[in-house]
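Students often ask why we bother predicting the structure of a whole assembly rather than each chain alone. The short answer is interfaces. A chain on its own may look different once its partners are present, and contacts between molecules only exist in the joint model. In this exercise we take two input lines together and write out one structure for the complete complex. Read the inputs first and try to guess which parts will touch.
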Amino acid sequence: QKEVEQNSGPLSVPEGAIASLNCTYSDRGSQSFFWYRQYSGKSPELIMFIYSNGDKEDGRFTAQLNKASQYVSLLIRDSQPSDSATYLCAVNFPRGSNYKLTFGKGTLLTVNP
Amino acid sequence: SAVISQKPSRDICQRGTSLTIQCQVDSQVTMMFWYRQQPGQSLTLIATANQGSEATYESGFVIDKFPISRPNLTFSTLTVSNMSPEDSSIYLCSAPGTGGTDTQYFGPGTRLTVL
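Now the answer. The structure tokens for the assembled complex follow.
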């Protein structure tokens, strides 16, 4: 059973702070890692993907991957109230279809003005 | 990225009836995916819809309950058959993006309520 684990939260941070969201996965052979943002009542929106160990930055977002520890994280700098949403970690497990994603249960982030 | 539309956006249905959800992608894709998101839960993959072949269902989902069509490279339908209140969920379709990555993009979803 392929598993993706996230702290369900809620994670509450003040506006302007750094929000740190974490995710662990069970299959050491996993190759691709994704972060989706889901606003209440909306569908998931892809915000970051990462394939290699280390950091990947895109604007205020940084994805970090450590395959040895089977750990992927998302940092949001200068958090804004508009970042308040559920953040879903997804992992592409290598067996079967290359595109089959397994999602974590998501972390609810609240950014307080 | 991929632009994906779904119809209907929401529906309220009586138990025992069936609903067909349509999904349209703005580019040709080999695979499309159908997910279910139950209230307060994460996404669970129902099946992979392959053009020109039978859909591949995940454990716990069967073709009689969730028949899928994939008539061409931009379109798919998911039918929720013989519905019960437990089928009340958001149903989402997704498709890979262009550019050679294995990213997936989601449609806006169909919110289904079964009474």
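Check your guess against this: The interface with chain B takes residues 32, 34, 36, 42-46, 49, 88, 90, 92, 97-106 of chain A (CB under 8 Å).
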